[in-house]
Amino acid sequence: MTRRTTTLLAATAVLGLLCGGSASAQDEAPPERKDPTCVRACRQESKACVKDAKEQQRICRRERCGDLAAAAREACAADPSTSACAEARAALRECYAACAAETAEDLAACRAENQECVEACPDSSGKERKCVLGCRRELRACLQPATELARGCRVACGELAEAAKAICEADPRAQECAAARREAKHCVDRCREALQDAVQPCIEALRTCVEACPDRAG
Known about the structure:
There is one protein chain. With 218 residues, the chain is mostly helical. It has one domain (6-212). Helix content is 78%, strand content 0%. The chain is elongated and about 80 Å long.
């Protein structure tokens, strides 16, 4: 899984909220002194990161271990007690374990990135509320072009993902399947890079705006 910078984490997280994502009522309370909108956005992106990691594990098991799974089925079809069957199953388990180890690393990275994202959120706890709300309105206005870009990316990349799914259902090990999946992944990667360029100035402006807000009276 491609690891993202802290700024891009916060950026895509905020976009996720603006494009229709919402925080669950069961989400934990934001850490003290951190802007709650920013923190909820970080958690929204963390959920997407975990989902991506699990999807990559499914792809790993299907693509990297698919031939071994087929070999194990063939070796064990006639007599599961043979040494050939045992060896084939052992090779398959080893492949699955490698996929699981990679997923564990990705999930650990998701947790670390979420922590970094939250730590990067501006401190709005002691700031005048009216000013902070104004900063958030400015953020939404700044992000409008990037929001439209995100929506367009979701449609375009979603169509490629659906096309890849249809191709791979027929033959998951076909070259056409691998090519279609690469094309869908490249679409997502290109969108993330474009979003980073579009959103980073807005995130920096939010931090500057909140930090410049006067302290709350009393």
